[in-house]
Specification:
Length: 110
Amino acid sequence: MPSLLPAMIRAAGLRAGIPRFLQAQRIAGDRTSREEDFAAGRVPILYLQPDHDPLAHVEDATAYKEQFAERVTIVVIEQSSHAVIAEQPDAVSAALICYACQLWRDGSGE
C-alpha cells in the first residue's frame, strides 16, 4: 500500500491543488517583470527545465544561464511538461537533493 501513496497524492494534487497553484503562479509571473525577476540577488540558482514544457522552453533556461553564468545550474527533467513536480517527482527530488549536496560541499549553502 505505501507504494500507491505517491500516485494517489499526485492524482489528488492534479485534481485539486495544481490548477489553483498554476493560477497563482501565472498572476505572480504577470506582475513581475523579467528585469525584476533576473535581479533577485546573488545566490546560486537551480533551474529545473522540463524537456517538453509548452510554456517554459529550454531557451528560457538558456536565457537565465546567459544572464547569470556560473550562478545557474540547469537540470533538464526528462519526460515531463509544465507540471514537472507531479509528473516526475522522483527526478525532481533527486535533482534537488543533488543540488543541495553540491551547495553544501561548495560551502555556498551555509
